[in-house]
Design a protein that fits this description.
alpha/beta; Rossmann fold; six-stranded parallel sheet; 9 helices; 49% helix; globular; Plasmid segregation oscillating ATPase ParF
């Protein structure tokens, strides 16, 4: 069976795309002998740096996680190469790069758009979701870096519901454990497997696979 492709995109920078890509990849790889590949088309290369730290810690195979760093125009060719070899491919995209993001969204079985609890993040989702609509790609917003409580969180959630935006049931809190694990080239399921952060990322990973399976 061809690999499930999950693209993570958001026009606004600093939304947490790279952290989300790495954390999802590790959670999926530990979720039942799945083979997972990461494709980084962001010239900033943050995912590649995390993967290098992972290789230094776990060996050249990076604990079973493959990484390709390619320009956006080469994405289709790279996905064709990977689709028959792995179960899941996660694509990390750059902000403010409409052409590259469009190609990555077109190739995806499901698009994940991280939104932090701020109006700027919410407003920035609209162009990305519009691309997904035109490309007929199933998209989901994930509420990311949510503080435990606060009026702004409630306001953003209410606005998402009012706009009838597609949103995952899973939500990610503003957890220090995510960043701490990234520093070591690991995922939170490896460093704090019983933490709230690990529970949240596992739930999101399984939800995304279910969405992709339902629409394949």
């Amino acid at each position: 069976m061809a690999a499930t492709v999950i693209t993570i995109a958001q026009q606004k920078g600093g939304a947490g795309k790279t952290t989300l890509a790495a954390q999802l990849a590790v959670a999926l790889a530990h979720g039942g002998a799945r083979t997972v590949a990461l494709v980084d088309i962001d010239p900033q290369g943050s995912l590649g740096r995390w993967h290098k730290v992972r290789q230094e810690r776990l060996g050249d195979d990076a604990g079973g996680l493959r990484l390709s760093e390619v320009a956006g125009w080469r994405l289709s060719t790279e996905l064709d190469r990977l689709r028959g070899d792995v179960d899941v491919v996660i694509v990390d995209t750059p902000p403010h790069a409409e052409t590259d993001a469009k190609a990555a969204i077109r190739a995806a079985d499901v698009l994940l758009v991280p939104v932090q609890p701020s109006p700027m993040d919410l407003w920035a989702t609209q162009p990305t979701l519009e691309v997904a609509r035109k490309e007929k790609t199933h998209a989901r917003i994930v509420l990311n870096r949510l503080p435990p409580r606060g009026n702004l969180v409630d306001t953003i959630i209410a606005e998402v519901e009012k706009l009838e935006l597609p949103v995952t049931d899973s939500r990610l809190g503003n957890r220090v454990a995510f960043a701490a694990s990234m520093m070591d080239g690991l995922g939170v399921v490896e460093t704090a497997g019983r933490s709230s952060a690990a529970v949240e990322i596992r739930a999101l990973a399984e939800e995304l696979l279910a969405i992709a399976k339902a629409h394949k």
